[in-house]
Design goal:
By secondary structure, the protein is α+β, with helices and mostly antiparallel strands. It has a single domain, classed as Phosphatase 2c, domain 1 (4-Layer Sandwich), CATH 3.60.40. The chain has 3 helices and 7 strands. The strands form 2 sheets. Strands 4-3-6-7 form a 4-stranded antiparallel sheet. It has a 3-stranded antiparallel sheet with strand order 1-2-5, with no helix packed on it. Helix 2 packs across helix 3 (102-117). It is flat and about 45 Å long. The chain starts with a strand and ends with a strand.
Length: 136
């Protein structure tokens, strides 16, 4: 089993995370239009009894920054022509709509995925969490 464990410290405006074989979360900063994968060492859970996991941190969170956590069933989804969805359509949706709420971005990404799939079915689970940093 893979895991991405993320905590958000709203008071200190800091993220901390641990990866255990799961795809990295995606971090978007609209102020400089950059995407970064929240990486870190760590193999899937249960593979090695004495496995060690690394805690990673990112501080100085700013308003409107966006964090996405998802399963590979989204970016590895294939349409009837066998083409893979990938991460670029997700990046494009976020980049073109940074002012939307987390809920609206989530809907926009799934709308883009559904248009891409057309009549083909997902072969894997498609789970996505969108978090948007606010001043609240």
């Amino acid at each position: 089993m893979t895991l991405f464990y993320l905590t958000i410290d709203a008071v200190n405006r800091e993220l901390s995370w641990v990866r255990a074989g799961h795809d990295p979360a995606i971090f978007y900063d609209p102020a400089n239009d950059t995407f970064q994968e929240l990486r870190g060492d760590g193999m899937a859970l249960g593979v090695k009894a004495d496995a060690r996991f690394e805690e990673n941190r990112r501080n100085n969170l700013k308003r409107n920054q966006i964090i996405l956590l998802g399963t590979d069933g989204i970016w590895e989804a294939r349409n009837l022509r066998g083409e893979m969805f990938g991460k670029e359509p997700i990046y494009r949706t976020i980049r073109q709509n940074p002012a939307l709420s987390a809920r609206e971005l989530l809907a926009g990404i799934f709308n883009t995925l559904n248009r891409f799939l057309a009549d083909s079915a997902l072969e894997d689970d498609a789970t996505l969490v969108v978090i948007k940093v606010t001043d609240d």
